[in-house]
Design goal:
Layout (H helix, E strand, L loop, with lengths): L2 E4 L1 H16 L5 H17 L11 H4 L6 E5 L3 E8 L4 E9 L8
Parallel strand pairs: 1-4
Antiparallel strand pairs: 2-3, 3-4
């Protein structure tokens, strides 16, 4: 089992996304709760299956193997696996429009 760690930018990006959902899209609290639950479920699945996603480092020109979890149709989370330390580093939540990524 791998330990999940979050980058400093993950909480910030999630908070900004939730604010956007509330104010711009006017999602209900229940809709937001369901989406956040889906994000959490997908991340925690990685602790048992860290390589469930495809390595996308060549697509985004990363020098380190990097994986992408797709959340619904509009969002993605990038992560990296450290096999020696048995950890997974979760990066920011990105909308598909934002795919200019620095990790």
């Amino acid at each position: 089992m791998y330990q999940i760690k979050y980058s400093k930018s993950f909480a910030s990006s999630l908070s900004q996304t939730i604010t956007y959902w509330q104010h711009d899209l006017e999602f209900s609290d229940e809709q937001i709760k369901n989406y956040v639950s889906l994000i959490s479920k997908n991340i925690h699945l990685l602790s048992d299956f860290p390589f469930i996603s495809k390595d996308v480092s060549s697509i985004y020109h990363f020098s380190v193997p990097t994986y992408r979890i797709t959340i619904g149709k509009k969002y993605a989370i990038f992560y990296r696996v450290d096999e020696k330390k048995k950890t997974i580093m979760i990066d920011s939540l990105f909308s598909n429009k934002q795919m200019k990524i620095e990790f």
